[in-house]
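Deliverable D4.2, example record:
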Amino acid sequence: MARADGVHVVGLISDTHGQLRAGVHDALRGVELILHAGDVGGDEILDELALIAPVEAVYGNTDTPGNPRLQATIVREVGGVLIQVQHGHESGRLTADALLERFDAAVIVYGHTHKQSVTRREGRLVINPGAAGPRRFHLMPSVGLLTIRDGEAAVEIVSLPA
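Output generated by the structure prediction step:
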């Protein structure tokens, strides 16, 4: 549900690996939906995120197969913008150009690499919100805030306390 001003804000999170870091509640406060790009690490993570907003999540390569709360892919329209969520391990080359070729959505969200990345090409966005779980590869933990206003999408990567 959009805010009173018609703006939609969606929380983007990935690679929690069973740990929800301090600061996630603050970073995602006020979002209308949370999209998790895989490597969730258990239903307790989804339950905790659901305290903030409704959650939809995809399987990552470390998630247990058969969990009915996880999907292979998410394709969702929010505020007139089509969003596609994949973990990324199933995609082969994980470059913005490869993902833009493979998927038609205006916003493509993925995880897997743990590295924050935002690419805008011809009005489309490819976003990796980074990893919000255990710190790896000397990368700072983070989440994303996807804002949709008048059919246009913008994203902010929000660092979490280390």
